[in-house]
Each structure stands twice: as structure tokens, then as C-alpha cells.
Amino acid sequence: MILSLASRTLSLLFALLLLTGCSTSNTTADPNDPFESYNRAMFSFNDNLDQYILKPVAKGYDFVMPSPAQKGVSNFFSNLDDVLVLTNNLFQFKLSKAASDAGRIIINSTLGLFGLIDWATDIGLKKNNEDFGQTLGYWGMPAGPYFVLPFLGPSTIRDTSGLAVDSIYFDPIYNEIHESFPAPRRENENAVWGLTLTKAIDTRAQLLKAEKILDEAALDRYIFVREAYLQRRKYMVYDGNPPDDENTFDESELFKD
């Protein structure tokens, strides 16, 4: 059911992009953004959704949750994410990183109380960041046009394909949803969707500080987000050493105090 839903969603998105492309002028300010008219409209929709719903909820979460509890929640989801990271490091034959990912999962899932405590980082097993979009880039697939996904935000054709594969096949939370069909266990299903919502709120709360940089630095928020996203993804695909790295966005700069 999840696979079918994802396939229909992707088909709808690509159809929408094609229709938008037909109605957009062939002369575009940025060749990486041929769907800018659609993208700006979707960016505005997502921005309004964030301002009126997601951001207030994230602020409330940040206010009521003590810092140690927030750290534990973030560590828990980071530990689940390490399963996805491990898989993609194997696909890219980065065996030393995959071994580190496996060590992180074992240590944090046991000594770290199901990932609530990140002992692995403390002993030198640093957190890696890989996904199937990066795997496709590693094997030579071009990023393709930039476009903004409903609710999810910035993406490219390559990264959207990667997101679908990661979600359907490698993400532990979505796999749990998939395994509950066709005979769903109501309690299990509710718990999984609760985890998904909590992860979204926790992620948004972590971005509250970074948002100040966006508000202060961006004359055009859309262009700022687009360029930051594309440069960051290039940085990640090439493991921090892109062919043209003088203009590459370093994500660590965004989260400096």
C-alpha cells in the first residue's frame, strides 16, 4: 500500500512539473530551476504552513521540553537514521564508514538505551550522513532540475527518487508502517505515526536557531534556500570535496552559535 501510494504521489508530482514546465517561459534566470514559477508557489505554500502550524508547534515543544529530553529524542531518531546511513554506505562501497555505522547502531541501541544516549560519538564513532539521493549521485546520476515538494520542501529529481527509495525500503519507521499492512495492528500503527510526527516536530525545533540566519541574510528567501540546498547536496555527494568547492555551502556554518 505504501509503495503504491508513493508511486502515485511521484507520478503526480512529475506530471505537475511537466505541466508547469509547459506553462513556464523557456528563458529562466537559473538553468537548474526551470520550474521556478511552480517552485515559488509551492515554497510560499510550505512557508505559510510552517509559519502558522509547524513553527508554533516547534516553539511550544522547545519551550516545554528540557534540553536533556530534547537531546534524547534527537539521539533516538539519529540512531534509527543510522540504519539508513549504513545501507547507503554499503551501496557506495564505503566499507570503513559502514563499519562505523554498524558500531554506532550496536553501541547506541544497547548501552545507549535504544539510542537515547549517543555513546558512540563520545568514543569516536562520528555520525555519518548518507541517503539514496547521495548514492545515486555517487554513481553518476545528475541532480536534475530543482523543485520544491509539497510539505517536504527543497529537492531535485534525483533526491526525490532517493527519498522514495529510502522511505519505502530502508527507513525503520516507514518499514514498520508497511509491515502492518494488509492487516494493521491499530496500536502499532498509531505508535508509528506518532513517531513520525514527533520526528518532524523535533527536526523543526532544531532549525529554530538556523532560521534566524535565513531571516537576517536573505533578501529573497526562495533563492537563498534554493542555493543553500543545491550547494549543500553537492557538498554531501562529494563528501566535502566537490569539483568546484569555492562556492560550496558548508552546512556546519549554519548551526554555529
Description:
By secondary structure, the protein is mainly alpha-helical. The protein is built from twelve helices and two strands; from the N terminus they run ααααααββαααααα. Mean pLDDT is 81; it is low at 1-12, 15-27 and 245-257. It has helices spanning 2-23, 36-64, 67-91, 95-110, 119-122, 132-138, 157-170, 172-179, 186-206, 208-217, 221-237, 251-254, and strands spanning 146-149, 153-156.
Overall average residue pLDDT:
81
Structural class by SSE content? mainly alpha
Terminal Cα span:
43 Å
Note the overall shape: globular
Poorly predicted ranges: 1-12, 15-27, 245-257
Number of domains as seen in the coordinates: 1
Tell me the strand order in the biggest sheet. 1-2
Count the strands?
2
Count of separate DSSP helical elements? 12
Helix residue percentage: 55-70%
Computed over alpha carbons, the radius of gyration is: 19 Å
The share of residues in extended strands comes to under 5%
In short:
The protein has 257 residues and is mainly alpha-helical. It is 69% helix and 3% strand.
Q: What would the keywords be for this entry?
A:
mainly alpha; two-stranded antiparallel sheet; 3% strand; 257 residues; disordered N terminus
